[in-house]
Amino acid sequence: MKKIEIAPSILSADFRTLEREVKAAQDAGADRIHCDVMDGHFVPNISFGPLVVEAVKKCVSIPLDVHIMISDPIKYANDFCSAGADVLCFHAEALNNTDEIKKLLDDIRSKGVRPGVAVNPDKPVDLFISELASIDQVVIMSVYAGFGGQKFIADTMEKVRAVRSAAIEQGLDIDIEVDGGVNGETAQLCAKAGANVLVAGSFVFGSGDYKGRISAVRESAAKD
Questions:
Q1: How many other β-carbons are positioned within 10 Å of the β-carbon of residue 112?
Q2: Which residues are catalytic?
Q3: What CATH number does the domain located at 5-222 have?
Q4: Which of 18, 44, 6, 11 is nearest to 221 (CA)?
Q5: Which of 24, 41, 56, 197: disulfide with 177, CB 3.0–4.6 Å?
Q6: Positions of the chain with pLDDT under 70
Q7: Nearest to residue 202, comparing CAs of 221, 179, 220, 176?
């Protein structure tokens, strides 16, 4: 089993003191910083763009896990690669076909960034599963993209199992990330299904104990 990594999402951080927030998360044991980019079109809300990603990159030494929930990932992917994304994941359902998905994955990789694909709870993994060999990370949304603090959708773990099974069958060592509603209880479900990267937003940044909350997620994921 791959090492479990915890990626606090800055969507739930206090942007008045963002540098302090991400440094505190890093010091508390976070393995990555997760950046949720929303355009107000693919999802109803607007969050931030490449300038914030670039600023966060200067504040921490752990990887930036950038998740772009935008309608035109082809147009903007390079901007986020240049801003400092270590991993860049776009939504499969934002593109028209597997050819576009494969091309964007290859373009991201050519920039020295690890490419990934995400899907919302109501979208099938069939959108991208044929291109799994070109993917470094799959993001299974366990809530609908665009809002923080939603309730975890347990049925989405079937997708995690399906992707992990396909990866094992093909001999691929990919990361599977679960994003949405991850906490000290649901982390165990994610890990058992085969996920190894867990995004925890409000559970971490909404507390006064980042270290304790990150440890709670890690400990839950480690349970049999």
A1: 8
A2: 36, 179
A3: 3.20.20.70
A4: 6
A5: 197
A6: 1, 147-149
A7: 179
